[in-house]
Amino acid sequence: MMSDTLPSDVIGRRVEVNGELATVRFCGVVPPVEGLWLGVEWDNPERGKHDGSRDGTVYFTCRHPTGGSFIRPDKVNFGVDFLTAVKNRYVLDDGPHTNGKAPVAKLGSKHVQAVGFDFVAKKQSQLNKLQVISLNDCAVSCAGEKGRIAEACPNIVSINLSKNLFSSWDEVMHIAEQLRSLEVLDLSKNQLQFPSESVMPAGTFSALKVLILTQTGVSWAEVLRLAPRWPVLEYLCLNSNNLCISERPTDVLQTVTLLDLSCNPLIDGNQLHLIAYLPRLEELILSNTGLSSIHFPDAGFGCKTSMFPSLKYLVVDDNQISQWSSFNELDKLQSLQALSCRRNPLTEGDKAQTARQFIIAKIGQLRTLNQCEVLPAERRGAELDYRKAFGNEWKEAGGHQDPEKDRPNAEFLAAHPRYQLLCSKYGAPEDGEFKTQQPFRLRNQLLTLKIKYSSQLEEKVLEKQLPDSMTIQKVKRLLSMLLKVPASELLLSYESLKMPGREIGLENDLQSLHYYSVETGDCLLVRWEQTN
Question: What is the DSSP string of 262-294?
Answer without folding.
Answer: TT-TT--HHHHGGGTT-TT--EEE-TTS-----
